[in-house]
């Protein structure tokens, strides 16, 4: 099974070929000219609360709502259901395609939250959003009881950082979701950054793990066209590991219907730009999002929705494909040079 980006504007920068669960993966990392478009793969449409997300056509934006007192970036800001619901409505107005509601901090060193307490935080937010007509809701949880309650209240996706490993009942519950995100994590949030963090080939090892978890999900009855994978930026990785995964998102393309990329405000960006305050890492996050979109991320999970939407809109507008359409529409009909014909033929590949 092969996947290759096609690009007429940049030189090839990386090639790799390896075996993942009996699939031969040939990944060529190049910068596609249409952010989020899948060059050479089969486009998938995933439903989220009635919205049809055309994965592979553009990069979609998942807005973060943390209903926690201790999340690394915005802990305590939306402790009440009313504040969280208002924030969710605001994120949708800013252009978010879907919302990701979480009630357990998964920052490095975080202690587990009992499922009952997690449900008490998250369920009123889901119910409040649904009461306002919002159904494009993902729930960030590794607990089956929380997932079941939120799906019953009208949520659509389950975003499980444990990739169905934490709770044996999660796979059964997740069958009812429109979308299931499986993420790579080393250990648990409490332990993931402890000890020596070593990979021989981080992209290959993460892809191999995710391929195995996708197989588990499929064996449990979850349709493959509803499964997305997330390499788990910041979850048991060093700065170099996070950068390498961000550069090689394309290796995850053959594994699932889509790729979720979550660099927002994370510590590796703080190290790069020497910024300790996560809320001051918006510009750094936008740089990572741009790179992720150009690498083919289908969904980016972010705190700063408005800025991200603007960034992606500009990227798409400035892509060679969009510029060629503008030039063609403005050019006089009588001017048909061989050069223009050549560009038109090249553009057909995109």
Radius of gyration: 20 Å
On the 0 to 100 scale, the average pLDDT is 82
> What percent of the residues sit in helical stretches (DSSP H or I)?
25-40%
The profile of the biggest β sheet is: 8 strands, parallel, barrel
Structural class estimated from helices and strands: alpha/beta
Give the low-pLDDT segments: 1-16, 26-42, 333-350
First-last Cα distance: 21 Å
* Number of helical stretches of at least 4 residues: 11
**Spatial order of the strands forming the largest sheet:** 6-7-8-9-10-11-12-13
How many DSSP E strands? 13
Fraction in beta strands: 15-25%
Order of helices and strands: EEEEEEHEHEHEHEHEHEHHEHHH
Shape: globular
Describe this structure in words.
The protein is an alpha/beta fold. The chain is built from 11 helices and 13 strands. The protein has helices at residues 81-93, 115-131, 144-153, 170-174, 202-219, 239-247, 267-273, 282-294, 305-317, 320-330, 338-347, and strands at residues 3-4, 14-20, 23-29, 44-48, 51-55, 60-66, 98-102, 137-140, 157-160, 179-183, 227-230, 258-261, 299-302. It has an 8-stranded parallel β-barrel, surrounded by 6 helices. Helix 2 runs parallel beside helix 3 and helix 8 (282-294) packs across helix 9 (305-317). It is globular, with a radius of gyration of 20 Å.
Write the layout of secondary structure elements.
Blueprint: E1 3-4, E2 14-20, E3 23-29, E4 44-48, E5 51-55, E6 60-66, H1 81-93, E7 98-102, H2 115-131, E8 137-140, H3 144-153, E9 157-160, H4 170-174, E10 179-183, H5 202-219, E11 227-230, H6 239-247, E12 258-261, H7 267-273, H8 282-294, E13 299-302, H9 305-317, H10 320-330, H11 338-347
Parallel strand pairs: 1-3, 6-7, 6-13, 7-8, 8-9, 9-10, 10-11, 11-12, 12-13
Antiparallel strand pairs: 2-3, 4-5
């Amino acid at each position: 099974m092969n996947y290759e980006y096609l690009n007429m504007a940049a030189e090839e920068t990386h090639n790799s070929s390896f075996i993942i669960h009996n699939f031969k993966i040939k990944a060529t990392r190049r910068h596609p000219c249409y952010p989020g478009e899948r060059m050479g793969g089969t486009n998938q449409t995933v439903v989220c609360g009635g919205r049809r997300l055309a994965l592979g056509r553009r990069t979609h934006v998942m807005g973060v709502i943390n209903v926690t007192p201790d999340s690394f970036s915005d802990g305590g800001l939306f402790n009440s259901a009313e504040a969280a619901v208002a924030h969710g409505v605001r994120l949708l107005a800013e252009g978010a395609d879907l919302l990701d509601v979480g009630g357990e901090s998964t920052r490095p060193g975080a202690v587990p939250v009992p499922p009952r307490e997690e449900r008490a935080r998250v369920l009123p937010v889901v119910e409040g959003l649904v009461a306002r007509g919002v159904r494009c809701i993902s729930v960030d949880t590794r607990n089956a009881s929380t997932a079941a309650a939120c799906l019953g209240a009208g949520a659509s996706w389950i975003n499980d950082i444990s990739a169905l490993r934490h709770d044996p009942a999660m796979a059964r519950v997740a069958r009812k979701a429109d979308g299931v995100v499986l993420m790579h994590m080393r250990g648990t949030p409490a332990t993931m950054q402890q000890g020596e963090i070593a990979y021989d080939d981080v992209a290959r090892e993460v892809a191999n793990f995710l391929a195995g978890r996708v197989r588990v999900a499929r064996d449990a009855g979850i349709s493959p066209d509803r499964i997305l994978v997330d390499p788990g930026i910041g979850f048991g990785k060093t700065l170099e590991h996070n950068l390498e995964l961000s550069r090689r998102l394309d290796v995850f393309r053959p594994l699932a219907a889509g790729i979720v990329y979550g660099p927002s405000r994370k510590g590796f960006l703080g190290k790069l730009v020497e910024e300790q305050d996560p809320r001051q890492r918006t510009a750094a996050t936008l740089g990572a999002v741009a790179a992720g979109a150009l690498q083919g991320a289908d969904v980016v999970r972010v705190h700063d929705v408005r800025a991200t939407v603007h960034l992606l809109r500009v990227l798409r507008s400035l892509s060679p494909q969009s510029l060629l359409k503008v030039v063609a529409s403005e050019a006089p009909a009588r001017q048909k040079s061989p050069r223009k014909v050549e560009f038109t033929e090249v553009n057909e590949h995109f």
